[in-house]
Specification:
Elements (H helix, E strand, L loop, with lengths): L2 H13 L10 H16 L6 E10 L2 E8 L2 E12 L5 E13 L2 E11 L3 H4 L3 H7 L5 E7 L4 E7 L2 H11 L3 E3 L4 E2 H9 L4
Helix pairs in contact: 1-2
């Protein structure tokens, strides 16, 4: 990989103000777009969701992300000019989802080749045929005692809703996905 290709993007990310991490202002949108550009350079699927950008300074960037249909691994893309005076991009798996939004961190990150997603079995086929999965929760509002069902576009939005309202709601079942609903209704169970 040509060092000149990604370092200007890393430098631009590092020049953004800390408020960019809030993702609500224009800087936040620019941060996500620049991170997505880095991810595109190593063929990370477009359905990858950025979870966190914990490092964006001194010409070093770390982008934590997950894939909606891959509960086996959580990933990190590192790019920058490192303390050992090397300039590189590295892809790593840093943990796996154990159950509802809990991540078990690996004791040592698993180093992956930068073309991991490009060479991953059926990645192109999955990319073109995959539909956007939705996440659903069923809950009872503790104040009104009424049942509700709500859907979310991403796992993070679902998790954030649960965390934000955990004192006011009672989940009546675990969160589930649109894939589960497709299977459920195709089997004629409903």
């Amino acid at each position: 990989m040509n060092k000149n290709n990604f370092m200007p993007i890393v430098e631009k990310i590092c020049s953004l103000p800390p408020s960019a991490l809030d993702r609500t202002e224009e800087d936040g949108k620019e941060l996500l777009n620049l991170c997505r550009t880095l991810m595109d350079m190593v063929n990370i699927p477009s359905n990858a969701e950025i979870y966190e950008v914990p490092l964006m300074e001194n010409n070093q960037v770390a982008i934590y992300f997950f894939l909606e249909n891959d509960d086996e691994k959580e990933y990190c893309l590192n790019a920058g000019h490192w303390l050992n005076d090397t300039i590189s991009m590295e892809l790593e798996a840093y943990g796996k989802e154990t159950n509802e939004y809990d991540i078990e961190m690996y004791t040592a990150f698993e180093s992956l080749p930068l073309d991991y997603f490009g060479n991953h079995e059926n990645s192109e086929k999955n990319e073109t045929t995959m539909k956007r999965m939705r996440y659903y929760i069923d809950y009872v509002d503790k104040k009104t005692n009424m049942e509700h069902s709500t859907s979310f576009e991403t796992k993070i939005e679902c998790w954030a809703f649960i965390r934000k309202n955990e004192k006011d709601i009672h989940l009546t079942k675990k969160p589930y996905t649109s894939d589960f609903l497709d299977w459920f209704f195709s089997e004629g169970i409903a």
